[in-house]
């Protein structure tokens, strides 16, 4: 009895090996078919042919497996085969690290983003006045921060809220930045405004609400200056990376990605900072990856640990909102740091040893 069981097990093992060999032989043929289909430009999935194969198989089925079971087993084989064909011909994205193993390093004035040093981007949520910009710019200059942010076109939730100073805001930002020798970043919301951006600012920001505004992405792809793309409020990383590809495919590969929190059920923060996005985006793409600690938390009290977490996870930089008098700010009053709070944060970041400054 025992010998017989052993004998049957040996037989089964042999059949398994044969099945394995046959399955892989089949997979090779499937791959060749995939090649031909790719060249002919026909879809890999052919439901009519799959049904015909299943019918042929069940018509020859003498059991003991029932037709439904045979169908189930072969459907799994077909599924795995289709997956194999799709994997073979998956389009390699321009932004993919598989396409370019080395980091993209973006030069903005004398600042390098995505290289061995990290960057700090700071400034008010919105451009409001010359005095406001000058007080922030002078602090940034003294602190050694090279890039100042400030929104001129504000995508606000309510149409009744402050919408930004528009072109006038960009002009003010440029004037003050030039006075203090800083580079600038500001959000652009209309495809027709790319030339305006080239004229007044150094980096185009595409906001979270516009991450999948494809016409805007295409226009930014034709612009001659770098782009900072924010992660959409409810965007997956796959969607985020594809949005960056929209810009890159048009020729502008100077794209930086910024995690700015995603919407979850959590209410103690404005959004949920997805730290895992940092190593994943660094792994999947060759683009610089930054973290906006202000919009991801919507708070002022946990920015240092969040910034440290971002840098420890491999972020190339941090963005933070600073306003000389946050209480009177025309947008995001609750989350903007005042100047002493910014200085304290900056000191904490520098002391952490996680922020490598450019030489
Ligand atoms: C901003 O940075 O000013 C802004 C509006 O951010 P987000 O697009 O991430 O909401
Ligand atoms: Mn803001």
UniProtKB/TrEMBL annotation:
Q: Which GO terms describe its biological process?
A: aromatic amino acid family biosynthetic process; chorismate metabolic process
Gene3D superfamilies given in the database record:
Aldolase class I (3.20.20.70), Chorismate mutase (1.20.59.10)
The Enzyme Commission number assigned here is: 2.5.1.54
Keywords assigned: Transferase
Q: Does the keyword Transferase apply?
A: yes
For whether the record's keyword set contains Transferase, the answer is yes
Q: Which GO terms describe its molecular function?
A: 3-deoxy-7-phosphoheptulonate synthase activity; aldehyde-lyase activity; chorismate mutase activity
Q: Which SMART domains match?
A: CM_2
**Domain Chorismate mutase intervals:** 1-89
Q: Which Pfam families match?
A: CM_2, DAHP_synth_1
NCBIfam families with a match to the protein in the record: CM_A, DAHP_synth_Bsub, PRK08673.1, PRK12595.1
The identity of this protein, by name, is 3-deoxy-7-phosphoheptulonate synthase
